[in-house]
Amino acid sequence: MPIYQLRCPAGHGYEVIQSFAAALPPCRECGQPTSKVPSVFGLAGQAERSLPPAPEAMPQTWRGTFNGDPEYVGSLRRTAERRRDLEERHPELAGDRRPVLAHEGRYESAPLRRGDPVPRRSAGDSGVSGP
């Protein structure tokens, strides 16, 4: 029997061993429908290196595009199109598609997406990063 990695829309993930013909079980934690996730085992090696990067791994700022270098921006656009085509064929590879509302400053390491709670600022946090 095959082992499947499953994930629900809420992000809960786990593995199950079941028949190929059996229906996918609902999420153990929230009861939502689940979908199959490609196994890391199946994507290792050459296939993993050939995958286009996820949108969150692409440059997010003007400086990240080498100040809008036309050749680099064109290559980014082609890479994004390859990723979009891949996700259309394999929706289980798509990450969080909620719009990013903030990605700089205190949100640089973890972008703020629509629907996320806004973290409270600490007493010493002015909201401005850098010199």
Descriptive overview:
With 131 residues, the chain is an alpha+beta fold. The protein folds into 2 domains: 37 residues, no CATH class; 64 residues, no CATH class. It is 22% helix and 14% strand. It contains 3 helices and 5 strands, in the order βββαααββ. The chain has a 3-stranded antiparallel beta sheet, with no helix packed on it. Strands 4-5 form a two-stranded antiparallel sheet. A hairpin with a 5-residue loop joins strand 1 and strand 2. The protein is flat and about 50 Å long. The N and C termini lie far apart (57 Å). The relative contact order is 0.11. The mean pLDDT is 81.
Mean pLDDT reading: 81
Helix content: 10-25%
First-to-last CA distance: 57 Å
Structural class label: alpha+beta
Element string (H = helix, E = strand): EEEHHHEE
Shape: flat
Biggest sheet statistics: 3 strands, antiparallel
Count of extended strands? 5
The total domain count is 2
Contiguous helical run count: 3
Share in β-strands: 5-15%
Low-confidence stretches: none
Strand order of the largest sheet: 2-1-3
| Rg over C-alpha atoms, rounded to the nearest angstrom | 19 Å
Strand and helix layout:
Elements: E1 3-7, E2 13-17, E3 35-37, H1 40-43, H2 46-50, H3 70-89, E4 100-102, E5 112-113
Antiparallel strand pairs: 1-2, 1-3, 4-5
Question: Could you give a quick summary of the protein structure above?
Answer:
Helices cover 22% and strands 14% of the residues.
Key descriptive features of the protein:
131 residues, alpha+beta, 2 domains, three-stranded antiparallel sheet, two-stranded antiparallel sheet, 3 helices
